[in-house]
Specification:
This protein is α+β, with helices and mostly antiparallel strands and about 140 residues long. Helices cover about 40% and strands about 25% of the residues.
Length: about 140
C-alpha cells in the first residue's frame, strides 16, 4: 500500500513500477477492460496511475508536448509524429489532474508550473500549463 498522503511519492512509485512496460499498451488494455481499478487500491492511486502512464508514454515517445483535455483522447506530440492515447473516464482524469495541480502548486483557472520527476539515475522537469480544463505538459528537448 502506498502513502495516500503523498501524491508526489505515489506518482514517482508508479513511474518506477511501470518504467519497463509499454505504457500505450497498458493504457489500451486498461481501457478495453473498462478502466477497472485494481483491488485494494485507492481512487487517488488509480487516477495517478493514469497520469503516470501518460507521462511515461510521452517520455518514451520523446514528446515535445502532451495535451490532456476532458472528454478527448490524449494527444502526444513528438513533432514529426503524433499519436493518441485513450481518454480516461472524466472523473478519473479530473481527479488525476487535480492531484497533479496540487503537486505543482497550480491554482486558479490558468497558470503554469514545473513537475520534477526522477527516472532511474536521471531527472526530468515537465512544464505544466493549465487553461481552464486544458492541460498541456511540455517536455525538455531531447
Amino acid at each position: 500500500m502506498r502513502d495516500a498522503e503523498n501524491p508526489q511519492k505515489t506518482l514517482q512509485d508508479l513511474l518506477n513500477c511501470y518504467l519497463e512496460t509499454r505504457p500505450d499498451d497498458v493504457l489500451r488494455n486498461w481501457a478495453d477492460s473498462g478502466w477497472a481499478g485494481d483491488a485494494g487500491v485507492s481512487i487517488d492511486e488509480t487516477c495517478l496511475k493514469y497520469i503516470a502512464l501518460v507521462l511515461l508514454d510521452s517520455i518514451e515517445s520523446r514528446a515535445e508536448k502532451t495535451i490532456l483535455e476532458m472528454g478527448c483522447p490524449v494527444l502526444v506530440d513528438a513533432g514529426d509524429e503524433q499519436h493518441m492515447l485513450p481518454p480516461a473516464p472524466e472523473s478519473m482524469l479530473a481527479r488525476g489532474l487535480e492531484l497533479l495541480r496540487d503537486m505543482c502548486g497550480l491554482e486558479g483557472a490558468e497558470g503554469q508550473s514545473v513537475l520534477c520527476l526522477g527516472l532511474r539515475n536521471d531527472s526530468i522537469e515537465v512544464q505544466i500549463q493549465k487553461s481552464e480544463a486544458l492541460h498541456i505538459m511540455y517536455f525538455p528537448r531531447w
